[in-house]
Specification:
This protein is α+β, with helices and mostly antiparallel strands. It has two domains: 10-106, Phosphorylase Kinase, domain 1 (2-Layer Sandwich); 123-341, Aminoglycoside phosphotransferase (APH), C-terminal lobe (Aminoglycoside 3'-phosphotransferase, Chain: A, domain 2), CATH 3.90.1200.10. The protein has eleven helices and nine strands. The strands form three sheets. Strands 1-2-3-5-4 form a five-stranded antiparallel beta sheet, with helices on one face. It has a two-stranded antiparallel ribbon with strand order 6-9. Strands 7-8 form a two-stranded antiparallel ribbon. Strand 7 (212-214) and strand 8 form a beta hairpin. The termini are far apart.
Length: 343
């Protein structure tokens, strides 16, 4: 057993998979992905087939965080749907094997883009890929949760009320100092929650271009990754999450589109992306979008505060990155306040 987030006990993992994964045969080599900061993720290579192992971090964690068992369940349920996912193989809930729960899925070959500017593509290819991103998001929100066995995947009631309460608790549990902007944002969001409109769909919770795998030679999505925050909730949270990301600065850390000439680059405007999504789902439009956008800034601020706390506690997957990204909590709080003002 190992409690290291950076490495795996290869002989132990190999022996476990030989006993529990049909068709597995070593020798096994392991490489850690740089992505998957919250739940450490590893590429497992064998002579015949490649797999991915995704594990819960060891050590003391916030309640309900890092739920790799939920990730496994939802991706297994989506197999064969219009939402592409990797094939799930097994879930190991026995912490004694490698020190924490983990699951094994297929490795999906293809292209992964870590920023929405898509600098290596032509303008036409950028537009086509973004349209595919839009298609998959609409398909996700049209999933029949009852038919897929996911009706109990999230509690009933007002999703935003529940989520704001949850992430406020998570933020308070990981606070490392007082931040006036975040405190104000929390208060205003609590007072601005829209009435429940009855929409109850599967939501991804972190739907971004860098959580998707696309065909090696084309723009077809091969798999949506990183389902840690998925639940049954309100679809506009996912849509606003895309727009939130795009309002960040471009580059390796912001991974946004702020200041980019989107028309020249073949990239959709926020309004076009929202309109295409609404057309696909038969919606007349979305009122009060500023609230949904503000909620996403708040939630991301709470998430990266948790990342910062893990770095300070010594159990972050990538400590240097975690400390750097954790410094941006005030920026997300400021953007959240601005979105509420402009709604």
């Amino acid at each position: 057993m190992t409690s290291d987030t950076q490495t795996l006990d290869i002989p132990t993992v190999s022996a476990y998979l030989a006993d529990h994964l049909p068709g597995f045969a070593g020798p096994l080599t392991v490489t850690k992905f740089e992505q998957g900061q919250s739940n450490p993720t590893f590429l497992l290579c064998t002579p015949e087939k490649n797999y991915v192992l995704r594990r819960k971090p060891p050590g003391q964690l916030l309640k309900s965080a890092h739920a790799v068992d939920r990730e496994y369940r939802v991706q297994k349920a989506l197999t064969g749907s219009d939402v592409p996912v990797a094939r799930m193989h097994l879930l190991c809930e026995d912490d004694s094997i490698i020190g924490s729960m983990f699951y094994i899925m297929d490795h999906v070959p293809g292209r992964n883009f870590n920023r929405p500017t898509l600098p290596d593509l032509t303008p036409d290819a950028r537009g086509a890929l973004m349209d595919e991103m839009n298609r998959v998001l609409a398909a996700l929100h049209d999933i029949d949760i009852n038919a897929r066995g996911l009706s109990d995947y999230g509690p009933p009631g007002n999703y935003f009320e529940r989520q704001i309460g949850r992430w406020t608790k998570q933020y308070r549990a990981s606070e490392t100092g007082t931040l006036a902007e975040m405190d104000r944002l929390i208060d205003l969001l609590h007072d601005s929650i829209p009435a429940d409109d009855g929409q109850r769909t599967l939501v991804h919770g972190d739907y971004r271009i860098d959580n998707m795998i696309f065909a090696q030679n084309g723009t077809e999505c091969r798999a949506v990754l990183d389902w840690e925050l998925s639940t049954i909730g309100h679809p506009y949270a996912d849509l606003a999450g895309v727009i939130m990301q795009w309002q960040m600065p471009p580059g390796a850390e912001g991974r946004g589109l702020a200041g980019v000439d989107r028309a020249a680059q073949g990239l959709p405007t926020d309004a076009d992306f929202i309109a295409n999504y609404c057309a696909r789902r038969g919606l007349p439009g979305i009122d009060n979008f500023g609230f949904y956008l503000s909620f996403c800034f708040f939630r991301m601020g709470a998430i990266i505060q948790g990342v910062r706390k893990r770095a300070l506690s010594g159990n972050a997957s990538n400590p240097e990155w975690a400390m750097r990204i954790g410094e941006k909590v005030p920026l997300f709080a400021q953007h959240g306040l601005k979105a509420l003002e402009e709604k």
